[in-house]
Design goal:
Helix 9 crosses helix 15, helix 11 packs across helix 16 and helix 14 packs across helix 15. By secondary structure, the protein is of the alpha/beta class. The chain has five domains: 93 residues, Roll (Ubiquitin-like (UB roll)), CATH 3.10.20.30; 75 residues, Ubiquitin-like (UB roll), CATH 3.10.20; 137 residues, Nucleotidyltransferase, domain 5, CATH 3.30.420.480; 155 residues, ATPase, nucleotide binding domain (Nucleotidyltransferase, domain 5, 2-Layer Sandwich); 88 residues, no CATH class. The strands form six sheets. It has a six-stranded mixed β-sheet with strand order 12-11-10-13-15-14, sandwiched between helices. A six-stranded mixed β-sheet has the order 26-25-16-17-18-27, sandwiched between helices. Strands 2-1-5-3-4 form a five-stranded mixed β-sheet. It is 26% helix and 24% strand. It is built from 16 helices and 27 strands.
């Protein structure tokens, strides 16, 4: 079969691919990332590119997503266009996936308090040599000392550690270092090294997010973060959200590309962390990964297909401890990977890690946690009880489902203020606007309703004159940035349809919170602290989020951002056997409310499709 070259600009990266490969598939091979919401189905229009050299035709049904002028200029969809010629491809700004604000959690060098033993530790032993009076086997000599160190009589010796043990002990004067891991109820020896290597023991905490993958390198002995790296999740090439990725994995694409994509992410980040800190990857003996249920399935190569189908059943909620090399992660070949447990199909290990990190399960007072993304995952409780749920918020807050929506990256409008006829905005990186991210959309809706450009129902006031309001295809839109101000040369707007989608998204999140509280017969005023986690939550404007009805109307000091709690919880488990045990207990004791079959949620959702809500008593502080 013939091969052709595809060059991607402005990345200036080329790749040779077989004829018939789609341009999207070529970009995967070249590690060039193009936006894609629909997983390659050709319906979202986000992977638009321009052919600047070579012959490539827009697929027939995709032509409806382009104007005639754009078709003449060579615009096509990357996911629907096959390679039959040497090509030069321009990725326009709105289709690029780069430079997002990636929330990495703790700063490098931050001391981490943990009094418990790490899940993988190294113990230096100076054993007494055998005598006629004490001629116990080598294994028993080691076990006696380890029993004192661990308090456990059950220590498992794998065969590969036994095979050269006799020589190793005698050649090194009975001085060895044992690498030991806790495997549920007993300890397992991973490795036996000659002499004292206990001073070199590292672990990696991983947040396997839908949008980003973030890693922290931890010196287990000093309990400090010594390196932090994050990147976009490579799986985004197969779909921006977990549903589209499941459709891909359970259909034409299969599981293999999904697992390889995220493992490649992790290996690249670990390699960079090791190089920056002048250590070998073989010195890394443990990994703890936290992710939502679907991402955990993808990481471990478990089929996720039943997660999205009624009655929404995952393959597993608790995951086995494995050697990281079993799924292709490059650390010490005997190094261990733990994946944090989940609760249900849409409440996973990332929320369990967040509950652990926030301390909800340790306090008498009732506290809440929310992670807002494509799903709004919520946990509420205290040390005696915990309940949780997940609401499908849709992709609006992450840039999908809105005409100019985008992820939070350079060029995204993140802040907006309207005063009279004037408008001010701020972009990430102070760059020319490309689109508008979630925090900008929330600010925009608040400003529009406050300035009476739209009503509480989200509809434009047709009789109000405003130079920034235009009508296109009979749909009103508000111009946030004019074409001559933007990187793309097109207006950045928010349309009435966009606003409707955003109201549905915020309505789903708020209704989920209210339904969960009603289920346990509590009011908003009984929540002592409400934690907001995740990358999107970290950039929320609290007063404006309350004013549009996304967050409950609590005193602002009660709403606390806790950053990447998934990563924090993973790191806590890396450093503490007790913390990992707590995670398991949290997951097993948490009650999940399936909102799709909980009728009060439907009523609460309909009531929340208003700005801020049809029941203004729920938002006493909001004034428009």
């Amino acid at each position: 079969m013939s091969k052709y070259s595809v060059k991607f600009l402005p990345n200036d990266i080329s790749v040779d691919v077989e004829e018939g490969t789609t341009i999207a598939e070529a970009s995967h091979q070249a590690d060039v990332f193009i936006s894609n919401l629909c997983g390659g189905e050709g319906v979202c229009g986000k992977c638009r590119i321009q052919i600047s050299r070579g012959r490539a035709e827009a697929e027939e049904h995709a032509k409806g997503l382009f104007s005639q002028d754009e078709i003449m200029k060579g615009y096509v969809l990357a996911c629907q266009t096959e390679v039959h010629d040497n090509l030069e491809v321009i990725i326009p700004p709105e289709s690029r996936v780069d430079e997002s604000q990636i929330l990495t959690g703790a700063a490098e060098g931050e001391p981490l308090l943990a009094n418990d033993n790490p899940i993988v530790r190294k113990i230096y032993l100076e054993l007494p040599p055998p005598t006629p009076e004490d001629n116990a086997p080598d294994v028993e000599r080691i076990s006696r000392v380890l029993t004192k160190e661990t308090g456990s009589r059950f220590v498992d010796f794998p065969l590969d550690c036994l095979q050269h043990l006799s020589d190793r002990l005698r050649e090194n004067e009975w001085k060895i270092t044992v690498t030991l891991s806790r495997d549920r109820n007993n300890y397992r020896i991973l490795q036996i090294d000659p002499l004292n290597t206990a001073g070199s023991n590292y672990g990696v905490a991983v947040d396997v997010g839908t949008t980003t993958v973030v890693t922290q390198l931890v010196d287990i002995n000093s309990r400090k973060v010594i390196g932090v790296k994050g990147t976009h999740n490579n799986q985004a090439s197969y779909g921006e959200d977990v549903i589209s990725r499941m459709i891909f994995a359970c259909g034409k694409g299969g599981m293999d590309p999904m697992q390889k994509a995220v493992v490649k992410n992790i290996n690249q980040l670990i390699g960079k962390l090791a190089k920056d800190n002048n250590i070998s990857v073989e010195e890394i003996n443990s990994i703890v990964a936290a992710g939502n249920t679907t991402m955990s399935h993808f990481l471990l190569g478990l089929t996720p297909c039943s997660i999205r189908l009624d009655p929404y059943v995952p393959t597993a909620r608790n995951f086995p401890q494995i050697r990281a090399e079993q799924i292709g992660i490059h650390i010490n070949p005997r190094g261990r990977l733990e994946t944090l447990p989940g609760v249900a199909s849409y409440v996973g290990g990332d929320i369990i890690a967040g509950v652990l990190a926030s301390g909800i399960a340790e306090h008498e007072e009732v506290r809440g946690l929310i992670d807002i993304g494509t799903n709004g995952e919520i946990a509420i409780g205290n040390r005696d009880w915990l309940v949780c749920c997940s609401a499908s918020a849709g992709p609006a807050f992450e840039g999908g489902g809105t005409r100019c929506g985008m992820r939070a990256r350079t060029g995204a409008i993140e802040k907006i203020e309207i005063s009279g006829s004037g408008l001010k905005y701020e972009t990430i990186g102070n760059a020319k606007p490309i689109g508008i991210c979630g925090s900008g959309l929330i600010a925009c809706i608040y400003e529009l309703v406050k300035n009476e450009v739209i009503g509480p129902d989200g509809k434009f006031h047709r009789t109000r004159k405003d130079d920034r309001v235009a009508i296109e295809d009979n749909i009103p839109q508000y111009i946030i940035a004019h074409a001559n101000e933007t990187e793309t040369g097109a207006d950045v707007v928010i349309t009435e349809t966009d606003i409707d989608n955003l109201i549905k998204s915020k309505g789903a999140v708020f209704a989920a919170i209210k339904s969960l509280l009603d289920y346990i017969d509590l009011g908003f005023d009984q929540i002592e602290t409400f934690y907001v986690a995740g990358g999107f939550g970290n950039f929320l404007d609290v007063p404006k989020s309350i004013a549009i009805g996304l967050l409950p109307d609590l005193p602002h000091e009660k709403i606390q951002f806790i950053g990447n709690s998934s990563l924090t919880g993973a790191r806590m488990c890396l450093l503490s056997e007790k913390a990992f045990e707590n995670c398991t207990n949290i997951a097993s004791s948490m009650t999940n409310i399936e909102l799709s079959t909980y009728q009060p949620f439907t009523d609460d959702y309909i009531a929340a499709l208003f700005l801020p809500h049809t029941d203004r008593k729920l938002f006493p502080s909001v004034e428009y």
